[in-house]
Write a structure and sequence with these properties.
CATH topology of the largest domain: Cathepsin D, subunit A, domain 1
Number of strands: 28
Radius of gyration: 21 Å
Pfam family, one: TAXi_C
Domain Peptidase A1: 80-406
Strand order of the largest sheet: 3-4-11-5-10-9
GO molecular function, one term: aspartic-type endopeptidase activity
CATH superfamily of the largest domain: Acid Proteases
InterPro entries: Aspartic_peptidase_A1 (IPR001461), Aspartic_peptidase_AS (IPR001969), Pepsin-like_plant (IPR034161), PEPTIDASE_A1 (IPR033121), Peptidase_aspartic_dom_sf (IPR021109), Plant_Aspart_Prot_A1 (IPR051708), TAXi_C (IPR032799), TAXi_N (IPR032861)
Largest sheet: 6 strands, mixed, barrel
Number of domains: 2
Structural class: mainly beta
CATH architecture of the largest domain: Beta Barrel
Bound molecules: 2-acetamido-2-deoxy-beta-D-glucopyranose
Protein name: Peptidase A1 domain-containing protein
Number of helices: 4
């Protein structure tokens, strides 16, 4: 079994499944846009590794130190920004979409000591629907329980210090006061969404105006919208935006498959059981019930051992292409000649679902006819990054604890 990777035609719709038969519930529609049009492989390797380290550190610390929160990238590029409007009248903004964390926050007002710099802020003083969340607010309680918020004297303000690194002294945090506002997704206005009005922040948050937490915790936008499920479809066309739908599903039509969400390595992630991997004619073990995390903020894909080494051996044993040196001996890259290359097929076997990947989802052209396998060895947790998720409509059904996917032309959803 081999798959042809067309180097000059990377935007193949390998199966055009029309979205049909959505339930009658209203679907809230937003869009996600990649902040960089082309992916620099070397930078992607570094960035993805940093995110992996922070996700792993969060897990390691979760038992003892509740102040350890989430993963973030050091610099922007491979991640997706979500576009939406906030306030009355609406102010349109874009903020980093992150399935690995919960808090929604935006730079508020002039925000001269805020990262990221250069992006627009949300101005509460020009909105009639803005309110500060009092200390008695439910979401304030959630943060207070994790020692991430404190009340002002009088209790009229809930001040948070939300740290993304390992400790409060790390240079990855956002600080401000909890508020409520009307968020507009597509044409639908949703009042009283709790979010952080940030007055100071440090760290890498892409190029937008803050961060939209899409995790499984109660602070996340997904939980607050109370929609039970959300889905996205990441287009491979860098010039187009990708749909992000809240309240969508279940998926219907050809090719839909589902697998249970599991709570390992953490119930806050969208993790599944990857039972095995087929590369060409060879099937190797997956990461099993250690979990495989679907993450929108990691660009490349990570496999823990022994899954990584066995999959790599299966790939090398079935490829006749010449290995290429990209200055990093840990990367599996090949020299191709001409405009296409035969690479072995790659299928992910989840608990009850098989994902037969198009070659574009696991080989990335890096220039000069060289293609690199995007799979990386992980010393800890395993992650399916955003390149490997492209051209699938992926539904996170939080309510039913299930992840479904369907090959799709994301531009038509
Ligand atoms: C809102 O605040 C900004 C900066 O703090 C200020 O420049 C602007 O004039 C204010 N707008 C209104 C309508 O008060
Ligand atoms: C805070 O923690 C306490 C004790 O674990 C729990 O009873 C309460 O429901 C929590 N509050 C919130 C808002 O999560
Ligand atoms: C995307 O846009 C750029 C600049 O407008 C253009 O050069 C490029 O060919 C476009 N890419 C695709 C895949 O359409
Ligand atoms: C895989 O199996 C098919 C059919 O049995 C065979 O034609 C092909 O050569 C095999 N490919 C490899 C890489 O072994
Ligand atoms: C690689 O080359 C060998 C010898 O020419 C051939 O037998 C084999 O089928 C080739 N394998 C693939 C995957 O093309």
């Amino acid at each position: 079994m081999a798959t042809k990777l067309l180097l000059h035609t990377l935007f193949i719709s390998f199966l055009l499944a029309a979205p049909q038969g959505y339930s009658e519930r209203p679907v809230l529609r937003a869009t996600m846009t990649r902040s960089e049009k082309t992916i620099d492989f070397t930078r992607a390797v570094r960035r993805s590794h940093e995110r992996l380290s922070m996700l792993a550190a969060r897990l390691a610390a979760a038992a003892g130190d509740a102040s350890a929160q989430t993963p973030l990238q050091q610099d922007g590029g491979g991640e997706y920004g979500m576009t939406f409007s906030i306030g009355t009248p609406p102010q349109q903004l874009s903020a980093l979409a992150d399935t690995g964390s919960d808090l929604v926050w935006l730079k508020c007002g002039p925000c001269t000591q805020c990262a990221p710099q250069g992006s627009p802020s949300y101005y509460p003083n020009t909105s009639s629907s803005f309110s500060k969340m009092p200390c008695s607010g439910g979401l304030c309680g959630v943060l207070k329980n994790q020692s991430l918020a404190a009340c002002s004297t009088g209790g009229d303000e809930c001040d948070y210090l939300y740290s993304y690194g390992l400790s409060k002294s790390s240079h990855h945090y956002t600080k401000g006061y909890l508020s409520t506002e009307t968020f507009t997704l597509g044409t639908d206005a949703v009042p009283d969404i709790g979010f952080g009005c940030t007055t100071m922040s440090e760290g890498g948050y892409g190029t937008g105006s803050g961060l939209v937490g899409l995790g499984r915790g109660s602070l996340s936008l997904v939980s607050q919208l109370n929609v039970g499920a959300f889905s996205y479809c990441l287009t491979s066309d860098p010039n187009k935006s990708s749909p992000l739908l809240f309240g969508s599903g279940p998926l219907t039509g050809p090719g839909v498959q589902s697998t249970p969400l599991i709570s390992v390595p953490s119930p806050s992630f969208y993790s599944v059981d990857l039972q095995s991997i087929s590369i060409g004619n060879v099937t190797t073990p997956g990461t099993g019930d250690s979990g495989f995390i679907f993450d929108s903020g990691t660009t490349l894909t990570y496999l823990a051992e022994p899954a990584y080494t066995l999959a790599k051996a299966a790939l090398l044993s079935q490829t006749n292409l010449t290995l290429a040196d990209v200055g990093d001996a840990s990367q599996v890259c090949f020299q191709t000649f001409g405009t296409s290359a035969e690479v072995p097929s790659m299928v992910l076997h989840f608990d009850g679902a098989d994902m037969a990947l198009p070659a574009e989802n696991y080989f990335l052209p890096v220039g000069d006819g060289v293609i690199c396998w995007i799979v990386q060895r992980s010393p800890s947790i395993s992650i399916i990054g955003n390149i490997m998720q492209r051209s699938y409509h992926i539904l996170h059904d939080v309510q039913n604890s299930e992840l479904s996917f369907q090959p799709a032309n994301c531009d038509n959803l």
